[in-house]
Write a structure and sequence with these properties.
mainly alpha
Length: 393
């Protein structure tokens, strides 16, 4: 900020620029995969990301850095909409949820490594070196993608479609809509919680701001990794034991039970004057809610036709952020300015989890009767394969 004379407002804009590019590009990449080989699309996304890293490394002002952030978000979006369907196709059936969890775990791990490596390179050389280093490390991955021939598996009735038809098709799937809206609700809570949680601790529980920031970041990173993997492992175990039950129904039920358990714990955290009780609630609530990650993303994929999985994932990213962590800090901040009572505002924020629980409850309640014969047949084939290969469990 000091070197490029960037204001606090401009620094905040850079963070939003990345998310803007990420949200807009996700469904676009999902359309590209219909016409091109998936790993070629990934290579294109990586190429854009490399250009963005180079632009950031050599930027001399806010404008070029802003463009670099937008382009980096566009490039990163290629992975989010294509990697989960690819894992769904090629992961061992008895470990599919765990593989999905490992992919989504990369987000908190990458964030933590970014802070660590960025800080080290900045202290040893300059902040620009971090962008140069990560660009060099990504070149072999880009070249590798160009030579991977694997395609996403398609349904027997696969046919070309337009983005509009894809949008109409996924919007008609009730379990897709319920899963996306449920995930958007808990993303809204986590977004506001991460932004204003430290401030609440300073004002209400008299905690040092640096300590509050460090604890929030540490707890979120650890829970984001450990709980996500735990959720994937638990899903695979439950799926193996269910035998003939279909995966979509199990994913919806697990999302509801896990989500419903996290809600009262989150709310209770803001009715205590004890730092120990507060942090205990936060650890337990984040442990529970991050366990949702593999199951809810699996539900999003499995609730649509196999050909529409990349589009469904890409669209869900835009909706989740548009209704979740993008408006959450803005609305929560406005309530704080209006009410001037941190405890009430944070309680209202966590109460938004009711919408998550409601959407997931409806999905779990009607899953046995509402899953179509086409979807159920497709998933039960996968279930039989999973059961045969995981009978030792």
């Amino acid at each position: 900020e000091h070197e490029l004379h960037i204001t606090n407002a401009e620094a905040g804009t850079l963070a939003g620029a990345f998310m803007g590019g990420y949200m807009v590009a996700s469904p676009i990449f999902a359309v590209f995969v219909i016409r091109f080989r998936p790993f070629v699309v990934l290579a294109f996304g990586l190429a854009l990301w490399l250009l963005a890293a180079a632009a950031a490394a050599f930027s001399q002002g806010f404008t070029l850095l802003l463009i670099a952030r937008i382009v980096s978000g566009i490039g990163e979006a290629s992975f989010q909409c294509l990697a989960p369907p690819f894992i769904d196709d090629y992961a061992p059936p008895e470990r599919k949820a765990l593989w999905l969890a490992a992919f989504f775990m990369a987000v908190p791990v990458g964030t933590a490594l970014g802070y660590l490596i960025g800080g080290l390179t900045a202290s040893m050389w300059t902040w620009r070196a971090a962008f140069v280093l990560e660009g060099i490390l990504m070149i072999p991955l880009l070249l590798t993608c160009l030579f991977i021939p694997h395609q996403l598996k398609k349904s027997s009735k696969s046919q070309s479609t337009t983005p509009w038809n894809s949008l109409v098709s996924v919007s008609k799937e009730p379990f897709y809509v319920l899963s996306v809206m449920g995930q958007a609700a808990y993303t809204y809570v986590l977004g506001g919680f991460a932004f204003f949680g430290p401030t609440y601790l300073v004002n209400a529980l008299q905690m040092d701001l640096a300590l509050a920031d460090g604890l929030f970041g540490g707890v979120t990173a650890v829970m984001g990794v450990g709980a996500t993997l735990l959720g994937g492992y638990m899903f695979d175990k439950l799926a193996a034991r269910r035998g003939t039950a279909n995966d979509l129904q199990l994913a919806l039920e697990m999302c509801f039970y896990v989500g419903a358990t996290s809600f009262p714990v989150f709310v209770f955290a803001f009715f205590t004057d004890s730092q120990v009780v507060f942090w205990s609630c936060v650890v337990v609530a984040e442990l529970i809610i991050f366990m949702l990650t593999p199951a809810i993303n699996a539900a999003i994929m499995w609730s649509v036709d196999p050909d529409l999985r990349p589009f469904a994932m890409g669209l869900s990213i835009g909706v989740i952020h548009l209704l979740g962590d993008v408006p959450s800090p803005i609305i929560t901040g406005a309530f704080l300015d209006w009410i001037h009572d941190g405890e009430k505002v944070m309680t209202l924020l966590t109460a938004w989890s009711v919408w998550m629980v409601l959407h997931l409850f409806v999905g779990a309640l009607y899953a046995p009767r509402g899953i179509s014969r086409r979807c159920a047949t497709l998933l039960c084939v996968g279930r039989r394969e999973r059961t045969q290969r995981a009978s030792y469990l």
